[in-house]
Amino acid sequence: MADLIIEIRVRPNASRTKVGGTAGDPPRLVVAVQAPAVEGKANEAVLKALAAALDVRPRDLKIVHGELSRDKRVLISGDVTGLVPRLLNLY
Known about the structure:
By secondary structure, this protein is of the alpha+beta class. It has a single domain, classed as Conserved Hypothetical Protein Mth637, Chain: A (2-Layer Sandwich), CATH 3.30.1200.10. The protein has helices at 41-54, 83-90, and strands at residues 4-11, 18-23, 28-32, 61-65, 71-76. It has a 5-stranded mixed beta sheet. A hairpin with a 4-residue loop joins strand 2 and strand 3 (28-32). The longest helix is centred in the middle third of the chain and has 14 residues, at 41-54. It is globular, with a radius of gyration of 12 Å.
């Protein structure tokens, strides 16, 4: 087992929840969520959306940098061997 860290850009208050596309330099995976950026609601929604998009358990994801920022680093724990093709499809 190995861990993987990905960089994401969060778009809170979106019209719908969606994972895909890139933003910024260096490119970060965009995670749009309907939840507002208040009291951690957007962070919780981000982890749920990412877990669904990557087909992993939400408990295997953790924000390790950028809790209060739109740009975040997310740690994916566990067996990540099959994640690279899924991640590439989202970019």
